[in-house]
Amino acid sequence: MAPPLQPLRRFRETPGPSRRSLLAGVAALGALGAAGCSRVPTAAATGGGDLLSRLKAAGVVRLGIAGEIPFGYIDRNGDLTGEAPELAKVIFKRLGVDRVQPVPTEFGSLIPGLNSQQFDVVAAGMYVNPERCEQVIFSDPDYQMLDSFIVRKGNPLGLRSYQDVVEKKAKFATGTGYAEIAYAVEAGYKEGDILIVPDQVAGLNAVEAGRADVFAGTALTTREVVKKSGKAEVTEPFKPIVGGEPHVDGGAFAFRPTETNLRDAFNTELRKLKESGELLRILKPFGFTEDEMTDLTAKELCGG
């Protein structure tokens, strides 16, 4: 989903698709794209922008998505779904915008597409990091994400961190373009020794077949993929070490830098959903749990 051996969306932008595979429904995206959409004019450069009022008048908001399960995709019935679009439907309805319309693109094109007016908001579970914060403004995260390992049943090597992998000289695997590559290298694992596989399904297969002792991915994706396995299990979620400190990522919605009014209104409704517990109810069908709920802010993740 990103060029081989490049840290994923958590660290820096990479061309092409993101870490999470462009799974089922991608072919259907084209039919639901920007064709036929009426564009909302460019926001005012001052005063926080007036996009929200114009979206209310138009009755529709265009969401940039990247066709990634479970973050934002078109299902087998041709319907827009995923954690970000479903959350967007609720929040924009509360803001007076009744419809959401998907605009599919590759992950690496989301920020350029947003800033060139191809859509109004990025709704793709995008990780907030300082590099992206120089190009767009983010809502506060609607979820946080830790890492986890797929290991053989019983975790015979006792692998619970990247440091364990290095110390026990375990055969380490992760996905193409995954940030876990950088996490393992930072812990001291030689990059050339990492087994790179296409995705978490291939990672599970590698562990089950003994080609790897451990596969590293996000807690959500590893947890979901081992559910039907009789040979492998997932470890408890943990924080990777980045720059000598435990690190947690957070995913959020992105807006054009001029549209602070829309971002602030979105944050107000998001905060209400967090406080009421409704946010978890919305995200739960996509594999999210209480562990993925967060009070992180965009300011923290932007480094400010």
UniProtKB/TrEMBL annotation:
<dbReference type="InterPro" id="IPR014337">
    <property type="entry name" value="Ectoine_EhuB"/>
</dbReference>
<dbReference type="Pfam" id="PF00497">
    <property type="entry name" value="SBP_bac_3"/>
</dbReference>
<dbReference type="InterPro" id="IPR006311">
    <property type="entry name" value="TAT_signal"/>
</dbReference>
<keyword id="KW-0732">Signal</keyword>
<dbReference type="InterPro" id="IPR001638">
    <property type="entry name" value="Solute-binding_3/MltF_N"/>
</dbReference>
<feature type="domain" description="Solute-binding protein family 3/N-terminal">
    <location>
        <begin position="60"/>
        <end position="290"/>
    </location>
</feature>
<protein>
    <submittedName>
        <fullName>Ectoine/hydroxyectoine ABC transporter substrate-binding protein EhuB</fullName>
    </submittedName>
</protein>
